[in-house]
Amino acid sequence: MARFEPIPADRREMHRAWLLDVAGLPTASGREQNVIAWVRAWALGRPDVRVETDGYGNLSLSLAHVPAQDAPPVYFTAHMDHPAFVVQRALGGTQAELVFRGGVMDDYFDDAEVRWHGPHAGVGGRLRECVGAGKGGKAYLAEFDHPIEPRAGDVVTWDLPGSQISDELPGGVLHASACDDLAALAAAVGALEELRLRRAAGEKVGDVRLLFTRAEEIGFVGAIGACRAGTMPTGSRVIALENSRASSEAPIGGGPIVRVGDRLSIFTPGLTDAVNKRAEHVAGGSQPTSAQKAGSAPRWKWQRRLMSGGACEASVFCAYGYEATCVCLPLGNYHNMADLDAVQAGTNASPARCAREFISVSDFEGMVDLLVACGEGLPSAGGFMDRLDTLWKQHEGVLGE
Predict the structure, then answer these.
(1) Pick from 4, 87, 242, 386: most CB atoms within 10 A?
(2) Same domain, 172 and 297
(3) What is the arrangement of strands in the sheet containing 164-166, beginning at the earlier edge strand?
(4) Is the bond preceding 341 in cis, omega lying within 30 degrees of 0?
(5) How many CA atoms lie less than 13 Å away from 251 in the CB half-sphere?
(6) Tens digits of per-residue pLDDT, 257-277?
(7) What are the Cα distances from residue 85, in Å, to 96, 136, 140, 313?
(8) What pLDDT score was predicted for residue 291?
(9) What is the layout of strands, in order, in the sheet containing 237-245?
(10) Can you give the residue range of the structural domain that contains 344?
(11) How confident is the model at residue 287 (pLDDT cuts 50, 70, 90)?
């Protein structure tokens, strides 16, 4: 296969702009309308991109007039929600009852600062107390700085600064309120943009489609709905995109992660190996073994990890009979929980507080590269059997000694 062609710098900048934009959108499980509007606006200026909605509000994007192909379609999927509050009812004046949808430790809610995203401008406030159960999670009383007129269903987030790229690591670090999973959504959009441009230039591109799901943070609800509805045709191959909690074994800046499984399941091995093979193609070589110097590693970086600290939609797709795997970005301040290791261990010296999530921009760009490579041609498997056959031919003679 021909050498992977790098993405031009001007288009990299465009992808970064989309990343900054979309990762700052307020969104919550069941209330993803801001992200949906952004995706539709992006597609509106591209007549060769089709957008469809299934019966559960999940979005599917595809390229128009793709010739019939022998291989099944390949889907890049990401979810459009992030842990956040939804207004359950207005209480008049400066108070409202909110329900939190997502997984965040209770420690982070004590006197936490929040922001209501109203029709004109946001208004800050604080949580006062937990008042029981709500639709999709625990309910909280919030007191805002000014009188507000919230509507049931309005999104309320932690009160955090806007999206910003710093220079803490080579290539930059994105700090944003919702990297999970909107950074992956931006990467999928960037990859589809590159693939449509390459197809327009006469290059061969596979049948690549996007699926953006809803309400992942409260139990993969949109993904389950998509599987039950058959939103993706039977036989589709699925690469779920995620942001997963970074660790010393899966560091931020180490490249996008080919995720072999999560805490629920191991993903489809053949498809995982095929994605890994495309990573080797982009890098121009494999990762060094224990018998090689670390300096022999390719300059384009990627990681291959289990990432068992959480679960992702790839497990859902596998359970419903799809070939599925995952590519994820290592994430700091997972679900906006700053100093999470210390808070979980009970060793934090100050009260638990929420902060912006952060990812490496070079990891994000690596995810775009890998997805483009998968869209250009994803093998049926990673070629491990070919390697075994080669090893057998090379060394079978030692068994006769």
Answers:
(1) 242
(2) yes
(3) 164-166, 173-176, 357-360
(4) no
(5) 5
(6) 999 999 999 999 999 999 999
(7) 11, 10, 9, 22
(8) 64
(9) 49-53, 59-63, 208-213, 74-79, 237-245, 323-331, 257-259, 303-305
(10) 9-82+164-386
(11) confident
Q: Is 137 a domain residue?
A: yes
Q: Residue 93 sits in a domain of what CATH number? A: 2.40.10
- Find the mean pLDDT for residues 332-352: 97
Residues 6+ apart with CB under 8 A from 119: none
| Residues near 90 by beta carbon (within 8 Å), at least 6 away in sequence | 96, 97, 148, 149, 150, 151, 152
pLDDT tens-digit map of 363-388: 999 999 999 999 999 988 877 888 88
Residue 223 lies in a domain: yes
Name the domain count of the chain. 2
Structural domain contains residue 102: yes
Average pLDDT, the chain: 94
Do 42 and 133 lie in one domain? The reply is no
Query: Looking at the structure, do residues 312 and 323 belong to the same domain, yes or no?
Result: yes
Going 197 to 200 to 206 to 207, the CA torsion angle's sign is positive
* 146, 123 contact by CB (below 8 A): yes
Do residues 367 and 189 touch, judged by C-beta distance below 8 A? no
d(CA 392, CA 11): 45
Q: Are residues 335 and 356 in the same domain?
A: yes
Pairing between β-strand 323-331 and β-strand 257-259 as defined by DSSP bridges: antiparallel
Torsion angles phi and psi, residue 298, rounded to 5: -60, 155
Predicted pLDDT of residue 255: 97
Where are the alpha helices (H) located in 144-211, listed in sequence order? 179-200
- Among the three residues 109, 138, 158, which one is the final residue of a domain in this structure? 158
Residues 260/309/330/346 CA torsion (nearest 10 deg): -160
Domain boundary among 158, 191, 223: 158
Scan for tokens 């922001």, then name that residue: 115
